[in-house]
Amino acid sequence: MKIILTHEVSGLGTAGDVVDVKDGYARNYLVPRGFAIRWTKGGEKDVAQIRRARKIHEIATIEQANEVKARLEGVKVRLAVRSGDAGRLFGSVTQADVASAIKAAGGPDVDKRRVELGAPIKTLGAHQVSVRLHADVVAKLGVEVIAA
């Protein structure tokens, strides 16, 4: 089935790309979650609009990505969350939490979809987080989760 991606999907493409995927994957996962729309002739007009919106938010060159990476890696990110006695969190730290903590710490504005958590963060302490700035540039960031 041909679909038009509306968001970046890891391993598949970025917003505005027209890709061919299996029917079940599109029908049961991508379309219901809003990651894609079905391809139609009229949908081609939407592709241009999606690509324009993507260019506004996208880091265009590797040099820009390396500058943002240097700024990110210089920021100390501390995230205060509620936790129990043993250091386990009530819930977990999300990508949106990390993105807002980066902004609050004085770092650059990062889209939450670019933040990659290796595993769910459910304990207090120091954790490593990756931020994919460009196809070839990934910033490694230390996040310290503390009790609120």
TrEMBL record:
PROSITE patterns: RIBOSOMAL_L9 (PS00651). Residues 13-40 form the Ribosomal protein L9 domain. Keywords: Ribonucleoprotein, Ribosomal protein, RNA-binding, rRNA-binding. Transmembrane segments: none annotated. It comes from the Bacteria. It holds the Pfam family Ribosomal_L9_C. GO terms for cellular component: ribosome. InterPro entries: Ribosomal_bL9, Ribosomal_bL9/RNase_H1_N, Ribosomal_bL9_bac/chp, Ribosomal_bL9_C, Ribosomal_bL9_C_sf, Ribosomal_bL9_N, Ribosomal_bL9_N_sf. Binds to the 23S rRNA. HAMAP family: Ribosomal_bL9. Belongs to the bacterial ribosomal protein bL9 family. This is Large ribosomal subunit protein bL9. It comes from Streptomyces xanthochromogenes. The lineage of its organism: Bacteria, Bacillati, Actinomycetota, Actinomycetes, Kitasatosporales.
